[in-house]
Specification:
Elements (H helix, E strand, L loop, with lengths): L7 H8 L5 E4 L5 E7 L2 E5 L1 H18 L21
Antiparallel strand pairs: 1-2, 2-3
């Protein structure tokens, strides 16, 4: 989250731990190319985080824990873009 294509060192380090392709999008943004239901699709890290949070909400609702609030903590060293 928050990285762009100018962050070459950090992106190269992250690529060691992932199984998907990391692409350069317009405006120096980073994209993630994945196979989704038989099609190749490109998502931004923000979109992936949105999918994840939606899934977490679904799990909690299925467990009977309905809420309209959630707390997400961000480390103090995170930049504004990363937040």
């Amino acid at each position: 989250m928050g990285l762009n294509t100018d962050c070459k060192e950090q992106l190269e380090e992250e690529k060691k731990f992932v199984t998907y392709n990391v692409l350069e999008l317009e405006n120096k943004k980073v994209g993630i190319e994945v196979m989704c239901r038989g099609d190749k699709k490109v998502f931004t890290p923000e979109q992936v985080m949105g999918f994840y949070l939606k899934k977490v909400k679904t799990y909690f609702e299925k467990a009977g824990m309905n809420s309209k609030e959630i707390v997400i903590s961000v480390p103090t060293y995170a930049t504004n873009t990363e937040r």
